[in-house]
Amino acid sequence: MEILALQCTGKNKLELTKFEKPEPKHDSALLKIKLSGICGTDIHGIEGKRSVKFPFIPGHEIVAFVDSFGKDANKYIKLINGSEIKIGDRVTVNPRIVCGKCYYCNNFPMNQEMCINSKTATSIGSSNYPHLFGGWAEYLYLLPGSEIIKLPDNLSDKNATLIEPYTCAVGCVDRYRHIHNWTAGDAFEINDTVVIYGVGAIGMLMVAGFYLAGAKNIIAIDTIKEKLSLAKEFGANYTINVLDTDSNERITIIKELTEGLGAGVVIESCGVTEVINEGISVLKRRGILFEIGHLLDAGEARINPYILCRNEIQILGHYAYPSSLSMLFAAKLLEKNELSYEKLLKFFRLDQYQEVIFDKKTENAIKPAFLIY
Ligand SMILES: [Zn+2]
Ligand SMILES: [Zn+2]
């Protein structure tokens, strides 16, 4: 049997390729993929903007069914919310396989994103047999050390495509709450104003996450009108279009909306370096700026250190998510279906890759995804 995969064979080169369906080894498993999200980091890989090994199969936001597995697979593949995997289980995959041996794995095992030797589908590459190490394909080969999560019963296949990006977003909400709990005296509460710069997939899900966590006021900022109106449906009380305002005007608006104080938290999720200085300027004293938008090196940012010093501002970097348990949390949050998540999604077939990836005809979808079958 032949398996279709969308393989990235070089910079800006995608090719539909056929591979022979493999028999999983004793410690491995094979998943039949139903849906696979298209993420900014997949695009960065295809464009050669981050270090990847060509050829590879992009895609790490996966909804799949267990197709087959080797006789010892249950010893080597961890099902996070169950005792053992079974044929037909509906799952998502933690794309990161950690080494379990490095300094970070030993000292911070609950922060898997820190592992310095971690493997992901794209780092394995598709030149290695059995090639199927990415989500934009009909099947995914799971290596030993992989972790999978069984999907909650009431979560639809389609909405499950949002688990991975939602995990990044709610992980940040979670960190913010911990910081508040740990450092008594911080002027920072969930009942506070959150400013989110950039409402792409992560920023939009950040709006949703803070809204569901009880943030009093959410201000969403972007350049695209349609995204801003969607942000209102996901919990933003106020939106600012960057194209209609300059930096000083935005600072004034945010100060006015917060009774002159400023926001408790700012999320930089647009990847624009200039936003960092504006972000710290709209924070109230002891406010926190989370930097999550620079997955690529965009150079240096200019910061006025007086603002940091006088206002005791905290700037925290946030990358991916700590563990498969956080993916399970995001899956359960999605299962509750408290927001119209389906409005974020738009589906395409694998053979539409030219228009979706290169011509960017995604009709402003927040989360475009491949519907494999
Ligand atoms: Zn992603
Ligand atoms: Zn490690």
Describe, in short, the structure shown:
This protein is α/β, with parallel strands linked by helices and about 375 residues long.
Descriptive keywords:
binds zinc ion; single chain; 373 residues; alpha/beta; 25% strand; 8-stranded mixed β-sheet; 29% helix; Quinone Oxidoreductase, Chain A, domain 1; 13 helices; 2 domains; Rossmann fold; 6-stranded parallel β-sheet
Task: Work out the strand percent.
Answer: 15-25%
Average pLDDT works out at 94
- Low-pLDDT ranges: none
- Annotated CATH homologous superfamily of the largest domain: Medium-chain alcohol dehydrogenases, catalytic domain
CATH class division of the largest domain: Alpha Beta
Largest beta sheet, briefly?
8 strands, mixed
**Termini separation (Å)?**
16 Å
Ligands in the structure? zinc ion
